[in-house]
Design goal:
Elements (H helix, E strand, L loop, with lengths): L1 E4 L2 E4 L8 H14 L12 H8 L3 H13 L3 E4 L3 E4 L8 H4 L9 H8 L21 H12 L3 H5 L8 H13 L15 H12 L5 E6 L3 H9 L3 E8 L2 E2 L5
Parallel strand pairs: 5-6
Antiparallel strand pairs: 1-2, 3-4, 6-7
Helix pairs in contact: 1-3, 2-3, 5-10, 9-10
Length: 244
Amino acid sequence: MERVVDGRLSTLAQIEPGTRIEKVMASIRQRIASRSLVPGARLPSVRGLAKAMQVSTSTVVEAYDRLVADGTISSRPGSGFFVAGPLAPLSLADIEPRLDRAVDPLWVSRQALDEGSVLAKPGCGWLPASWMPEEAMRRAIRGLARADAALLTDYASPMGLLPLRQLLSRRLADHGVQAGASQIMLTDSGTQAIDLLCRFLLQPGDTVIVDDPCYFNFHALLRAHRVRAIGVPYTPTGPDLPIF
């Protein structure tokens, strides 16, 4: 007995222990949690799901009826069953790979946040403490402590520190890029910047072309946003686009 997970089939027995009805319900809930099914999305037909999971249609009917009763899905006579309620919080555990891979970007991300310092963490996004200008940082923190109370307690501009944005504007102009300070927004990290781009410019199911190799966090974010990534070999002269 099988179900579809991230475009692949896995056995029904791998979902969780319980009756066949409970396993069908768990399969639907997992697809909602992983955002394969979003609010308003139409669920597979009773016959279609029964065939895919190799169970009887009565099993699927009962599972759907129970999901309707607990508010997970809704029934529209003549149209079928649809996901109800607000968008579920994204669960990375529900979308991580089920099979071994040469590189699992979500696993690498989690390892980078491990507190241990025994192993090197390539691609983690920050420098070793011994590389940092410790004394300069301490001086800056002492100077900040003597600043006005408003600087210490109030929210800053959502766009980021104005003097830094003005500096970036001038540096960009040196490279022929005309961007005023009001057109620049600072982020806490490159990962946050990529995440914002994904949130505002992409929809689940979109296709994105990325460099290959590519920053592993970028791959993890694209997968979290349910985007299909296509790698383009990166050569000494740039992306190898003629392969398309």
